[in-house]
Amino acid sequence: MNDQSGAPRRVLLIEDEPNIATAIAFILRRDGWHVATHSDGATALDAVDRHRPDVVVLDVMLPGKSGFDVLGGIRAGQRPGLPVLMLTAKGQRKDRERAEALGATRFMTKPFANQDVLQAVRDLAAHVET
Amino acid sequence: MSVGTGTRIRERRLALGLRQAQLAREAGISPSYLNLIEHGRRPIGGALLHRIAERLEVDQANLSEAEDSDVVQALRAAGAAQGLSAELLEDADGFARRNPDWTRAIVAQADALAAQARSIEALSDRLSHDPALSEAMHELLSTVSVVRSTAAILAQTPEIDRNWLGRFHANLDADSRRLASGAEAVVSYFDRAAARGDGRLLPSEIVAQFLDAANHTFPALGREGPAAIPALVAEIADPDARRLASEILTADAADAARLPDALVGEADRPEALAEAAGGDLGLVLRRMGLGDPSRGLVICDAAGALVRRKAPSGFPLPVVGAGCPLWPLYTALSQPGRPLRVRIETPDGAQWLAYAIADPVTLPGFDTPPILRATMMLTRAASQGPAEPVGPGCRICPREGCAARREPSLVVQGAMAGERTGQGAPPGGNYG
Q: Is the whole model's pTM more than 0.80, yes or no?
């Protein structure tokens, strides 16, 4: 999965559960993505600035700062249009609505299928290209 | 027009093969007078209705127009909820007369649906408000997610290298143990709730179940007063719930002593009891609301929290949490001492008369703010008219575009969809 210059597209995966991060990173890398992982909510915005990802995959439950707060920070920052796929085990309607109100580009509930995550990241990146 | 008492008498008489003259003679009235009753031209009640019911070998309540009227109203509400035309709704009494068994079945089904709506709300609130259950479910779903994702990788990647293979196997082993622990935690959570003998978590829920089972009516209180309370609440296992139920029944017994059943049973309007109650309209509404199964009663404290709920058939009330902000109950809270009578309409098209008043529950004192409590009594409106739209509470209310809505409805999916589309659109566009 490369950009116009031929370099791999970048995904920043912000997820504090190491085994989930391992699995998602594995399937994305196999698809050709460059994947950076980050596990702390408090420093997640710094990671976004540092890695300059094309797509962010963001868990809701994070130590330090929630995924909702991180999402709000992204939307208020220098790249408000950055595509963000939110993942949560709290599939309650209020969480989905909160994510949508804060500007999540897509919302996915655990347990998810690998293929669904992969396709969502592809879709988000394709939207940015167009 | 409802199914008349006279019609029921005539149908029952004919079913028994009795001649009009014979029944009239045995009831102590003239055949012509019985004929007028059977055709709805003369009212009937009291001792005469009792004698006729006895001779017709049926319960007096089965002949009463009031019960029929409630059934027809409930049928009409059930039809309105399904979007039947005004013409069909108008013929509800005719339908009930022609199909009494089907009518009972439809009304019972509508009541069951309302009960399910209340259960949905209770379960949803439990998941939202109980951090222990919420945390346990989050852990369980997270672990299921890892196991599913890892297992899929192993199954769908035959060429995976040995290092990754070992790593994923180790993860799968660890996460499957974690999954087992998480499942045990959730099962244990529900076991603990079941061990309390109620399957619910909050004392207020247990008390609501206890009161609903008795339809909020305890004849022993009228006979024995507060002395009857310990035996009545003995069945409640949870000590906090038992204490709460005792407090409620003690208050009910005190109300009954101030305004006896004999007076309440004769009144059809709150105003009729105002003098007997010494002007305490809150007392009147409580007594009338509890004394008749077809009426409802809602009491809230100054914070708006519902502390007493007696749902009449066709008007579901939230099991936990607040009610509809549009209820006159809350209007009364903002105007203490002012009695309100408001015609309201629920989303199913049924209309109700809501009587409400807020008054202090503490003795007045200088420099001491009064502690207020609002009381609302609900009774079905006998006719249709301009009415204030209300709901049963946001979670089980299907009204769209309501300015007072504070949370989405669980009953109708997408009830808030229109609102979400506008405010939820992300800067980069929503293509999810």
A: no
B428's CB contacts (< 8 A; 6+ apart) are A81, A82, A83, A105, A127, A128
* C-alpha R_g of chain A: 13
Tell me: the pLDDT tens digits for A37-63?
A: 999 998 999 999 999 999 999 999 888
Return contacts of B405-409, CB within 8 angstroms, 24+ apart: B406/B325, B407/A94, B408/A93, B408/A94, B408/A97
Instruction: DSSP letter for B348, please.
Output: T
- Hey, what amino acid is at B311? A
Q: Identify all chain A residues contacting B134, using CB atoms and an 8 Å cutoff.
A: 90
Q: Work out whether strand B340-345 and strand A106-109 pair parallel, antiparallel, or are unpaired.
A: unpaired
CA pair distance A56, A75, nearest whole angstrom: 12
DSSP B191-238: HHHHHTTSS---HHHHHHHHHHHTTT--HHHHHHGGGGHHHHHTT---
Residue A91: other Cβ atoms inside 10 A? 14
Name the more confident of B181 and B120: B181
- Long-range contact pairs involving B34-39 (C-beta distance under 8 Å, separation at least 24): B37/B5, B37/B6, B37/B9, B38/B6, B38/B7, B38/B9, B38/B10, B38/B13, B39/B6
Cα separation, A82 vs B427, in Å, equals: 8
- Helix (H) / strand (E) element for A68: namely helix A67-75
Q: Which of residues 30-59 of A touch B (CB under 8 A)?
A: 30
**Interchain contact A107–B (C-beta under 8 A):** yes
* Interface predicted TM-score of the whole assembly (ipTM), two decimals: 0.87
- Considering CB atoms only, which of A22, A24, A113 is closest to B171? A22
Q: Where are the alpha helices (DSSP H) in B17-159?
A: 20-27, 31-38, 46-55, 60-63, 65-81, 86-90, 92-98, 100-129, 131-156
Q: What angle do CA A24, A29, A33 make, to 5 degrees?
A: 110
Is omega for the bond preceding A111 within 30 degrees of 0, making it cis?
yes
B429 in contact with A, Cβ within 8 Å: yes
Taking alpha carbons only, the member of A59, A64, A70 closest to residue A103 is A70
